[in-house]
């Protein structure tokens, strides 16, 4: 299952090139050698598009992370690269400038590059610290960064925390800005669909920005006058589908069962890289020194593995269910072995040798990658074979399939607590249950809370309070949610999961992991609601009850050249309005027309003749983060759409999320220790 | 009909031409000799300031007042800025026609439009103590030379940050200039200082002696493209060298005793020397035109990038090298096809058949001929010749089968604009190149700065440029110049005029009103601004914080919201602050979120105010986690409990906090008694550790005290015993009758620790499991025979056969025996 060429329409290389050019240009403008101080969370993001050696070519001497009092004053030039929307980081920058100025003997030149923009708060804070006039200030307009050709990410590590714990909509605004930029490049999204209260907020913001954009565009002297005639609907992008993470929280708590998903669950992936113990990759390291491009040694005991399409094997493995990885690896290993034997044949002509030599680099990198992924897969196997994992998965699947017996589930969870499995595992299960059932019974919840603070420490009173604030672990209340007939009509305050499971086929009993017919393969049975919502819009046939009656909804999807695929761009949520309306949060459906009717019409005419064969894309934007399993599922959908109607999906998100990351936001890390 | 070559002069093998632009420029009684005259780039405005170094003849009080007078090139007074702010040391322009005035104490005033509004800033770096000697300007910045030879550079005007360049050597600076950043290899400004016999090059990092011997130099000047430097030596020689000081390109000895008043480049290939009323021109490779021209009154040179403006009291002229197409078309006897095409149109006008002959001669090069005529038209100031050339081009292209007329059409449009602005009323004598570099947008801006709104709008509409800026500027001017009584009328008039214009920003107009001290009008105008975010800063300025907050929230920009909140907090009392945010959830969220990181006290007040007991208590718990010692931790915990003292319904929360406190006290005792570390552990961990240490009694006490369930306790005990390999105790446990967690966990844990013997003890107790599981358990312990017995007992023949296939040797025989027995039994 290779990465589908969905990205064709949205040129990701352009984005990377532009970001790199902009950063290097800013660095070049500062004369001489410089020390670069970078916000830790930005370092990985920057690493996605520029190498450290390139930075060195542009005069960067040393690199520091923005922390307290760690700045080295060896260079006259000191450059800060920091997010301008992060108040804490701004303050640290101001304090450091003041510190260096008072302590260092030489006269420093300070420069600050705010990402993605210079904010008024940053000005105010620098002014309060008396350093505003000290620094040369510029901006690096970094918005979406491609993680893959079909995945754009804002890489906002804090967006989940900000949105759901702090209720701080900064990332909604950042998303709107980034999406506006896409609209400026590719034209207005003709239709904006979405689900969730924040999705509504984002859609409103996009509309508002669009009207303000017209004012801005014409008052910007650098703007060519053509641009000021306003945006016209895009001929490439058909829809923007916004999925508010809040509408589908259970999915992030389910254990991802794709290869990449499990890599994220077990080792954690950030900025397309994972860090594993050197011992995991075993003796492969010394034997494969040329593998430097794929793996780079970090500290003595850790190694970084690059996980993207530069790897020979990874693209074909990443989205497959982990259960099917073994055979693929086996087959590849055997093929390589055979190739290797044919290379070592004693009687070879010069021609043969030539072809052998030409194949050699590819062969080496491929066998290197087989080794790495085999080791990684073995390590994951250790994890998946463990008793804890087995039990956790069982509970999880029971919950997701619905109709589970609460007491047996609770018994299992109590066991897990008593056995001191990691807190995260326990909380994931409880949150999953709470999210699916709109809360836990008050008495059960109190019980679990007591057990948790006793087992893991009283500091977790705070953890549990945070989870409650985030709406992840709640007492069930009679008057809330679908049980209440007078609940607000603007949008449900709670999802009726049983109805959703039924209407949208969230549980598929027979899953064929090796040759999947439905997206449910990514969780071995559970089909993520988020992706089902996308299918409601783009792949209605996969969900039509008439087809579903066969019990194999996926079967319809594969032969999906049904008429609806051609009209799906215009029908919005139909005929699933009812099902969708019973899911928590507002439903969004906005049609955007060009400001200038003539121009839009002209574009429309052109589109109907020219663009019929061109790529047509729907952008699926996850507000609050997306999991690797969902990405895999969406790629699966995209592939089917492409086969049936030539449409593809591009996935955009504020960042990558997982159950672990979500829980970690809440977990109190200190303990009652003195 | 004037002769197109009327003002041409040949210097060496090149032609130079002087275009008279305007006459009767200044008042007759203005003696420019006593004034410093500087011109903005691209034929912009001219600033005239009394030269304070010169002794003036007394002319009555009227003239004694200092002012900076800004004129157009045609001598129309645009603005008079009265001056009483210190000794002016330098006056200069930026390319966007921003006027900069530097006084001797290092204060800089930057006048953004031509209307007298300025932003001041200070050079610093010792400018106050040593005094500014002089300044040199380039398109986007300037460098000031201080009394101690230090150099201060300013590279941008929107946010000026004066920067000290590397320290130059001491000594008298006889002349100096700079190379703008865009023309240096380092991309930062370089200053050339002529000291003693040599020239130093100074940038931000170092000062380098270029080792010249021919000094001292009286003048030094950089060519507009930064490639060449012209030097004037004390003994009257003019040198032209490359700007990297590697090549000496030409040398010319002027025979004049008195050194020239000024030396400037005319384009990139000629140098002009100016004395009081005459100018000399030195062309490429040393060709010279002495006494190129003489004038009736004092001469000032205003260099531009493609030529030089010569300004006297009476005339304003533009001196430039004759542009290539013009030379080809008009040079006497030019064989160029364009010259022949031009001739053809004259023949045509005379109705002579020669016109066709001409066309036939140049037929193969007709493309080029048309092209040259179009380009030459652009270079003409005379409307007659513009027409003539365009006519030729038009004639030529009518003969051509295929010709792209874009250039032609564009040129006609450009010429219309150029002729309009060159008209003496406007006085912007732009050359074609200057217009292209300036861009139409910035030309419109210049017209707006001159308050020539009509022409600005006409040109914008003609060229399809946005007009919003013009309207806004008009409105601002309206606000500023109107009297304060008819407030409503002004607002209405402005709204009427501006509404319906795309992209108009009322915010800018409102700001002008505010700056004029009319906050009411400002607020009223601001109401018409479509962009919520833009309204915020001004609303804050006029003291409408809560409206500002609403607008900020409306804009969705959290930066703005936060900004308003920070301002609001500084301004109002805490209770008002809380009241304001309490009805706005996003504002509260942002306050809470930012306070979490930096202002816990504010958070406490907030929670107290809002009666959020759990949050308040949790905040104290969080403080307890960071407390320095156990007593303080316990104190904080007590405080956290006290928060709830007169409320009900938080029993479980209070209980947890009390337990936490109790646990700490327990752990303290254990640490004392057992000399082991306990503090920081959870209840379960404490029990587990006590068991591991063999302290069963204490562990039971903790279990009872904290009501830990038997199930949990059993698990803890099992794992603790396994971890300390206490097989004896585990064996003892296997004799127990009942287990709250069943016996399977015992089997699994002990087996996991590798003790098959003990593990086996539990198998028979797992009575609730199916037989197959028990068989497998025996197998896992390596006891095949036992597994067989289990199967035999259950009469499970299949399992037995499976077992047989798995094993060899003695055990196989045993299993076979059992199979036989089973079969026999049947």
Give a brief rundown of this model.
The complex is a heterodimer of chains A (674) and B (826). By secondary structure, chain A is an alpha/beta fold.
What does this structure look like?
The complex is a heterodimer of chains A (674) and B (826). Chain A has 674 residues and is α/β, with parallel strands linked by helices. The longest helix of chain A has 36 residues, at 350-385. In chain A, 49% of the residues are buried. Among the domains of chain B are: 324-467, no CATH class; 470-598, no CATH class; 769-826, no CATH class. The model of chain B has no long low-confidence stretch (mean pLDDT 87). With 826 residues, chain B is an alpha+beta fold. The interface between A and B is large, with 68 and 86 residues. Chain A: Residues 282-302, 544-574 are annotated as: Disordered.
Chains forming the largest contact: A-B, 68 and 86 residues
Biggest sheet architecture of chain A: 7 strands, mixed
Helix content of chain A: 40-55%
Taking the alpha carbons of the first and last residues of chain B, their distance comes to 136 Å
Sheet with most strands: strand arrangement of chain B: 1-2-29-28-27
Helix proportion of chain B:
40-55%
Write down the Rg of chain A.
Answer: 26 Å
Structural class of chain B: alpha+beta
List keywords for this structure.
heterodimer, A: alpha/beta, seven-stranded mixed β-sheet, five-stranded parallel β-sheet, 16 strands, about 15% strand, B: about 850 residues, alpha+beta, five-stranded antiparallel β-sheet, 34 helices, Vacuolar protein sorting-associated protein 33A (chain A), Sec-1-like_dom3a (chain A), Sec-1-like_dom1 (chain A), Sec1-like_dom2 (chain A)
